[in-house]
Amino acid sequence: MDGTFTDQPNGLERCSPCTTCHSALGLRVKKQCIATSDTLCKPLEGFYCVHHTGHSCERAQEHKRCKPGQYISQNEYQIGNECCPKCLAGRRVKTHCTVDSSTSCLPCMTGTYTDKPNGLERCHHCTNCDSGSGLRIKTPCTVTSDTLCEPLEGFYCVHHTGHSCERAQEHKHCKPGQYISHNGTASTDTECSDCSSGTFSDGTFHSCQPHTRCYSLNLQLITAGTSAADAQCGEGSVNVGTAVGGAVAVIILIIGGGLLFWYLKKER
């Protein structure tokens, strides 16, 4: 008879009455009852099943409605009119939940990650620390966290995202005539300062050096010092004019002495 069924061979004197999907229980018909199978029920739109029997829902409850000032729980995500449980960090959604089943999740593959509970169908790709951007790996990527990057040696970060560096720049090189007043770090550039008068630096010194004083070393100044280079000293050279003058004076003295000796001897 209509409204009754038997779903297996039996010795019953009466067929079983078909189940009624009561809207008061938050239910609606999923599959109509026929002579060989009972009715299958599912939750009404906006409801979720709280008690199953086989493939049929026996009782459903209306989805909670967030109040003004509230938001959907961090453990759920919305897909259509359903609020589905999120997949854990390190996993992603294989199939979204339905009125009859929960969310199905899969682990992230190598080179991908999710760092928090999510309703994503694909894991995020791990960040590449590109040496062309002045970066290297600080912390490798895992299925639950992205790669963290840091500046290469001799570089400093110019753009951060959280605890990771996205772009780095090479430290400034001080020019000749300047000295390094502050070394560059992973987060700051090198600072340069000009040398004062009487000192010099080739740009690699951490302080300017005083020019060499040639005269204090009994040397002759060859090239005067600049802010970028030291003074150049050399051995003292003989003054030709002085030497010639001295030689002439000696000769005159010798000749004069000889003539005087000759004159005195003649007078005797």
Strand content: 25-35%
Oligomer state equals single chain
> Helix/strand-derived class?
mainly beta
Walk across the major sheet and give the strand order: 1-2
Tally of structural domains: 4
Percent in helix: 10-25%
Measure the end-to-end span: 183 Å
Work out the radius of gyration.
48 Å
* Second CATH tier, the architecture of the largest domain: Ribbon
- Poorly predicted segments: none
Which CATH class of the largest domain? Mainly Beta
Assigned CATH superfamily of the largest domain? Tumor Necrosis Factor Receptor, subunit A, domain 2
N-to-C series of helices and strands: EEEEEEEEEEEEEEEEEEEEEEH
Q: Mean pLDDT, nearest integer? A: 87
How does the overall form come out from the CA principal axes? Answer: rod-shaped
Folded structure, characterized:
There is one protein chain. This protein has 268 residues and is mostly beta strands. It folds into four domains: 1-62, Tumor Necrosis Factor Receptor, subunit A, domain 2; 63-125, Tumor Necrosis Factor Receptor, subunit A, domain 2, CATH 2.10.50.10; 131-170, Ribbon (Tumor Necrosis Factor Receptor, subunit A, domain 2), CATH 2.10.50; 178-233, Tumor Necrosis Factor Receptor, subunit A, domain 2. It contains one helix and 22 strands. Strands 1-2 form a two-stranded antiparallel ribbon. A two-stranded antiparallel ribbon has the order 3-4. Strands 5-6 form a two-stranded antiparallel sheet. A hairpin with a 2-residue loop joins β5 and β6. The longest helix has 28 residues, at 240-267. The protein starts with a strand and ends with a helix.
